[in-house]
Give the backbone structure.
Amino acid sequence: MDDFISLERIVKVYPPNVLAVDNVSVGFHKGEIHSIVGENGAGKSTLMKLLYGLVPFDSGTVKINGAAVHFRKPGDAIAMGIGMVHQEIELISQYTVWENVVLGAEPVRGLGGTLDTKRAIELVRRKIDEFQFNLDPSAQVERISVAARQKVEILKLLYRNVSVLILDEPTAVLTPQEIPQLFAELKRLRDKGTTILFISHRLDEVLELSDRITVMRKGKKIATVAASETDKEALAQMMVGRQVIFTSKRTPHQRGERVFEAKGLSVTRRDGLKLLDNVSFSVHAGEIVGIAGVEGNGQFELVNSVMGLAAPSSGSLTVNGTEIIKLPILERRKLISFVPQDRGKMGASLPASILDNAIMTHHRLEPRFSAWRGLVLNYRNARAFTDTLAQRFSVQMASRQSPFRSLSGGNQQKLILGRELLLSTPFFLMDQPTRGLDVGSIEYVHGEILSMRGADRAVLVISADLEELFLIADRILVMHRGQIVADLAAEQTTIEEVGRYMLEGKRTA
Amino acid sequence: MTRRILSGVLGVVIAFVVGAIIMLLEGYEPLATYGALAQFSLGGIGPLTTTLKNSVPLVLTGLSAAIAFASGPVNLGQPGQLVFGALAATLGGLYISLPPVLEIPLLLLLAIAGGALWSGLAGLLKQAFGMSEFIVTLMLNMIADFFTAWAIAYPFMDRKAFSPMTPPIAQSGWMPDIGPLNASVLIMLVSVVVMWFVFQRWRAGYEWRITGQNSLFARLGGCDVRGNFMAVMLVTGALAGLAGGLVVMGGPHRFLKGLGANYAWDGIMIAIMANNGLVETLIYGVFVAAIQTGALGMELITNVPSEIAQVLQAVLVLVIVATREYASVVFDRLAARRQARERAT
């Protein structure tokens, strides 16, 4: 079969020196589902964005039906029938479905060009019926589910008669139950002749959905294979460049004394809405407790209450029997290590040097970093500490004085993790500890978390990634609308059961 | 580092070219004008020491703004803090007379206290009522301006003078000349060194810097964010106050009407040119002082009005800031293109 779209020898360097796409040539057939897989930073999103005209590339050619094209902006690509749905959904939530779909390409009538509402709704309805999307064109977008919003995004492009759909990690925002439905719809689209380019790093999904798969690693194309002729292990090996173990290395471990306890913790918003509703649980030494849940169900408030960023309305929090609710942050930090979900906002100062980031909190708690009675920092010890930290947690850095920003995501997380681990606290709070990391770094972080359990520290991991929780957690708590609706032993539950609790909360049986 | 120097030098050169074009359009000789500017600011011991002395209030208020901006608090109250420092030193010098070894340190301390009092007030209002220091310091500038104008026109006026001013301070409080150089220059240099040490080596300076870059990270890391805010307000107010004290003690030896007119705003501008770097603030402060000093002499021998120096100064700020931002974009893009070309072959 001839390639419908072909990318030839594409090179893209993000200034100053990030080689995002390294001489990649790949072709896509008409009417196939073609997945692009790779770790974070492998260049898959960039490759698609430059096909879509969103990012300019430095050299190479894009051909459609054998003719070279040059898109300067996404509008050019859409005019040629290529559309892209981004990871973040970008709709106007106050508008209805049909208004969002026609926005920018509205059917009009008369000289003044008034919006032909009736025809617009009819056109949108016809598209919905054609692709069996099961959407109500008059529903307001803020009232429909995330999965439905994603369908609206796709519909927007179909309405513009796009024949090539690029989807950038569309399943990242969906719950496990919503994914099969999306896949069924995508397959139906393909059968009607639409070409679908699907970016993902979830191998199970990719294998289930695609006809062909292109694997990228560090900006290079590794291979393009037929989905029927490969398997998860082979793909993972191509993606990472070595063998990856998918099973947990968690070994049985006797849990010890209770370390962390939340009792009746509530956070009530001014309008009376309970963001955290009477939450009680405990974490023992040598135990990893995972908190699962769709984001925005109280995890943020829980973290803020524990770390002292916002006071809860009522309840108590203790670490080793010490009530911490009234303690200033510095006092809490003697008991709690914390890895936040957003490295650049809470976990580090990006423009500061690696050294400045490495000694945070240590600079107050450990006398070896102080001289002149705490007035001056002991930079000699700080330098030695930074080197030890970097070595122990294998942080690849140019120099201690380089800005933190210059580190890769994985190395940034290793440094933060190491800094917090070396605080030697009894309780460890981790909020999305592997978000945005590549497979290698994720493995590393999981290994460190498990060895903390081995060292009898109490670990609380909040994660939106269920597979991650099943790999490391002993117990999984599910948060739903500010409540803990389930407390399940990891061995005795399944991803499906946890997913159901995430979506439906406590079953009203 | 080399990149930073390169873009700084490039910015200055471009600014001078733009300034030359403006002069040509106005019908002046740019080369002769620049020559006169350089001659009267840098050409010999006399002009050089005058430039350095004139740079004192610019560098100190610039230092104040740079430390504040780099640490988070938007202290724009340098003009008010400067006149309060100047007033405090003047009053000390009017009513207390000690030998110079005691008088000078005392007046300097009074100046520091006067500036810190005025910035501390803004700090307290923020801590107590959450009032933004950005607007409060600006408003306090007005109050300081009118308060000092009243003070030198009524209670502390020199009856023999024709315009509002205080009588001269005790002669033991005058900043002496060491050879050709006024001692206020030494105080300025010591301040820069001390502040550099505080900012780069003290624990407090570490927390100030991190808080300025990412206050949530600093707070979560256990830094005393509230205490640091107050400390930065006090220290930066003290620096502006010191500038005011040195202006009085090194210059007219009394508080004249309009004494603080532009120093502090120029200082804030210098901090912006210096991208809040302390050493850069010293360099740009002396540089701006040279232009201002040279302009006065230039007016004497050319028919170019000294206002052209203000035009030049404005162009400098714009071009230096723009060049710094744009140069890094251009450097990055060039590096990217080079790499892309290598990969494509």
